Amino acid sequence: MNPKQLDKKLRAITKHEELYRQGIPSPNPPEFIYMFKERKRVGKLLFKQFSDLFTSSPNILVKKHSRFQSYPLHIHDWIEINYMYDGSCTQIINNNTYSLQKGQVLLVDSDTVHTIEPLGESDILINIIITKEYFNSNFFNRLASDSPLSSFFINSITEDNDHDSFIRIRSENSRRLPLFMNEFFCEWFDPSAHSADMLDSMFSLIMMELIHVYESDTTKESTQLKKNPIVPILRYIEDHYQTCTLNSTALHFNINANYLSSQLKKYTGMSFITLLHQQKIRFAKTLLINSKMTVIEVANYVGYENVSFFYKKFNSICGCSPKEYRSS
Questions:
Q1: To pair with 292 at 20 to 30 A between CA atoms, which of 204, 217, 250, 266?
Q2: Is beta strand 74-76 parallel, antiparallel or unpaired with respect to 40-45?
């Protein structure tokens, strides 16, 4: 698929949209679980209701927002990125009204009460749905350590935090974002042989461009998010995975080892040793695919002296042996 074909696909009126335009409700409406939040009736959507749609990537779903349709106030248990491909839309978030223009992006945290007013025919809104499982240490290592977006996503996966935040990014003048988005959407709707890896890489480019645009904007509009101290620690683990330990990492940041361990668990849901093994195996996978090193050499290079233990960890994380991964 190329950008011209993508544009044609996105502008085409779907069967459901034709019904909505005639005032006919959806034959298969989403199954909201209704509750009251701040005295308002709010519907909740759960990831498990859409899990069978995650075909190109296990943790990312791209979906065009249906036009001509009214939506109730609702929340969901995933993080959502709204990209205004063309036209504009009006969104109501936490009782406030916001306009999203062509080229702009809205990040919406899970459990944030919001709705979107009906779109017209020329209003093309793309929803990128991301599960919380996607936001692991490797994702945060790609972002700037003091980025507001880093804080937004860390807050979104921390269960004890309030989840009512959003960030509107005025990216309409970005030269790169439409290019990245179009390639991302083309890959999603017409996946290649290595689609999951390509989507992951392109999503990283999108996030880095959004960071650049957001930090250059002098009229930021979002909830206020504090810088989060955990990203520099994740970056340190990435850079020193071969030799670092919990104690050496704590010493580097001049904090107590137990406190460091509890903070990693709080913000990532994983222990220090789990994060460390994930980083080692991630780099081992790169070496297996892109080098002629033997499995033993790879194990030693990433910091495993016990090759049997390396095999065990690799299989538990990847679901196959190093040799099977290399030959796949």
A1: 204
A2: parallel
Residue in this structure with the two tokens 């944030």, named with its chain if needed: 112
Query: Is the overall model pTM greater than 0.85, yes or no?
Result: no
Residue 8's pLDDT is 97
Block residue for tokens 């085409």 = 12
> 270 and 264 in contact (C-beta within 8 Å)?
yes
Whether 40 contacts 113, CB under 8 Å:
yes
Tell me whether strands 105-108 and 79-86 are parallel, antiparallel or unpaired. Answer: antiparallel
CA dist., res. 276 & res. 282, Å (int) = 10
Cα(247)–Cα(257) distance, integer angstroms? 6
- Across 159-171, average pLDDT: 69
At residue 270, the pLDDT reads 77
User: 208 is written with which tokens?
Assistant: 């880095």
For 41-69, letters b (16+ CB in 10 Å) and e give ebbbbebeeeeeeeebbebbbbebbbbbb
Nearest CA to 230 among 211, 245, 212, 249? 249
- Domains of the chain as residue ranges with CATH: 3-222 (2.60.120.280), 230-327 (1.10.10.60)
Read off the pLDDT of residues 242-270 as tens digits, 9 standing for 90 and up. Answer: 899 999 999 988 889 998 888 888 777 77
Report H helices in 93-194: 137-141, 148-157, 176-189
Residue 281's pLDDT band, with cuts at 50, 70 and 90, is very high
